[in-house]
Amino acid sequence: MATSTAAQRREQAKRDYDAFLDQCPTRELLSRLTDKWVALVIPALVDGPQRHGQLAQRIAGVSQKMLTQTLRTLERDGLVTRTVTASVPVRVDYELTPLGHELFPVMIAIKNWAETHMDRVFEARTQYDARP
Amino acid sequence: MATSTAAQRREQAKRDYDAFLDQCPTRELLSRLTDKWVALVIPALVDGPQRHGQLAQRIAGVSQKMLTQTLRTLERDGLVTRTVTASVPVRVDYELTPLGHELFPVMIAIKNWAETHMDRVFEARTQYDARP
DNA sequence: CGGTATCCAATGAGATACTG
DNA sequence: CAGTATCTCATTGGATACCG
Predict the structure, then answer these.
(1) Of B81, B102, B112, B130, which residue is least crowded by CB atoms under 10 Å?
(2) Dihedral sign (CA A8, A11, A16, A19)
(3) pLDDT at A2
(4) One-character DSSP codes across A116-128
(5) pLDDT at residue A7 above 80?
(6) Among B129, B108, B56, B78, which residue's Cα sits nearest to residue A131?
């Protein structure tokens, strides 16, 4: 029998799941992907493994709690690996998995879109707020 | 003097704004773009104007309040237009602006990613939860 | 250094009822 | 039909202090 290819399975998945539907599990995944810090954490990891402290510096303003929490969720979802090196003090590295690398283009796109179109959004807001 | 092209201005904007920085206004825009219903509303509008009721049907499970609230924010940000036709009962149509159409590819990408990779995320979660 | 635990303020978001 | 107004509850996320 013919085994389905990975591409075929992905096609199948796209038919099975539909985020427009209520109670579809992709709704929950969608809300994970749009979590506050995900669009910054994934791009921050794209150039290779990063330590917790490095990430905290790179992503200015993130609290330790939220960074850890975000990384845990990403780890559970198979997007990031967490590697502990037993030393004193302990060293922890985070790295994108292959699945995480597949998510990267989507996340960098959203980040870039915001940076690129900020001005036009500002203009629109000014006009909207100036309405009678 | 040479006027800068739109492409050049976009390049400039990408240099000026950096969502990795705290207090950068793109942080706020990023959080708007990742609001719960935006990744569903934008794709739902891509094929042309839609009435409030149509959208509510298409995006199963959204409350009227959240739909209106999301559309208002998108309108203020210049991504959607709101057109009222005075009749009885009144008719309201929402439509993507050119800026909204520019955002569409990003939003559909995230929606598609979730639908396409749901299975792999599920597997990862199962493995993670089964750990000692 | 990295992580956990606790507490608490702010926001998000649903349900319901009412208006033009 | 579309929208507003409350009311209420759950979730988010930050600050702080403590542990390995």
Answers:
(1) B130
(2) positive
(3) 53
(4) HHHHHHHHHHHHH
(5) no
(6) B78
pLDDT of A6 strictly over 80? no
Strands across the sheet with A50-51, in order? A50-51, A91-96, A80-85
Return the residue of A nearest to B24 by Cα: A115
Residue nearest to nucleotide D3 (CA to C1'): B68
- Helices B25-33 and A98-129 pack at an angle, to 10 degrees, of 110
Contacts of A118 in chain B (CB under 8 A): 13, 17, 25-26, 29
Q: Is there contact between A86 and strand D, defined as CB under 7 Å from any strand atom?
A: no
Which among A11, A47, A63, A120 is the top mutation candidate for probing chain B, defined by the most B β-carbons within 10 Å of its own β-carbon? A120
Strands of chain A (E only): list them. 50-51, 80-85, 91-96
Dihedral sign for Cα B111, B11, B3, A117, please.
positive
Chain B contact set for A20 (CB, 8 A)? 40, 44, 58-60
pTM of the model: 0.90
pLDDT digits (tens, 9 = 90+) for A94-123: 999 999 999 999 999 999 999 999 999 999
Token pair of B23 as six digits = 């207090």
- Calculate Rg over the CA atoms of chain B: 19
